[in-house]
Amino acid sequence: MNSTVIFIERSAPATITDFYDVLANDLISVKEKWSFEFKTFRFTVKNLPPDSPRLMHSITFSHHGNKTVTIKNKSAVVTSTNPGDIPTSLILNGCSSRSSEPFDHLLTSKLSNLWTQRQSIKGDFGSTYQTAELIIRATNVFSYGGFKGLLIELECEENVQDTDFEQRVAKIRNYLKEMGIEDYKICGDSIDPLMKNYACNLAFQYVKVLEF
């Protein structure tokens, strides 16, 4: 699968309705609601080398089994709160008690002397649109300070060539241009081009467009 994430900071809460209107002729169906939560943590230990990265991000996706991807620099870890995702071997050898805890909760509860939460951004009750070429997810994004912008996630379930997917993304970008929107962040990069992991790549794209 391929994915690209677009974030339009200079938008209004009603922009998501305008976006739906321009997609209307292409829609096959409107699918399930979805949400995400994006958190940024800062490493508080001092006396690190000046070029050492201090930020770590976690992104939880409701539409991917509520999995959480934690990214620091270009390393990623995928965790889940679903007990069914715990390998049986870890339970049998005593490494797991069958209970699971979100990784970001561990940071704030048991590692709070090392990591402090810097920001939290959420997209709730997002819409999912199915076209012949893409699954398009759109949601208004909010932080503690209020409305932040419109986020659009583009997904292609087919095994298409990168150039074909880029053409499909270009079509969405043309729709945005028709709406008068040309100032936005966009990312379709992979966290590691040599290792294809959809959840990690998607989370990396979220980091790139939502970092402030």
Molecular structure report:
It is a single chain. The chain has 212 residues and is an alpha+beta fold. It has a single domain (2-210), classed as TATA-Binding Protein. The protein has five helices and ten strands. It has helices at 15-23, 88-92, 103-109, 162-178, 198-210; strands at 2-8, 27-30, 34-43, 55-61, 67-72, 75-79, 115-131, 135-143, 146-156, 185-187. Strands 1, 2, 3, 4, 5, 6, 7, 8, 9 and 10 form a ten-stranded antiparallel beta sheet that branches. The two termini are 28 Å apart. The relative contact order is 0.27.
Comma- or semicolon-separated keywords:
single chain, 212 residues, TATA-Binding Protein, 10-stranded antiparallel beta sheet, 10 strands, globular, activator, Mediator_Med20, transcription regulation, nucleus, transcription coactivator activity
Helical fraction:
10-25%
CATH domain fold name: TATA-Binding Protein
Radius of gyration: 18 Å
Molecular shape: globular
Number of strands: 10
* SSE-based structural type: alpha+beta
Total domains, how many? 1
Distance between the termini: 28 Å
What series of H and E elements makes up the topology? EHEEEEEHHEEEHEH
Task: Please write the CATH class name.
Answer: Alpha Beta
Number of helices: 5
The amount of beta strand, in percent, is 35-45%
Q: Characterize the largest beta sheet: strand count, sense, and whether it forms a barrel.
A: 10 strands, antiparallel
Unreliable residue runs? none
**Average pLDDT, all residues:** 85
The CATH architecture assignment turns out to be 2-Layer Sandwich
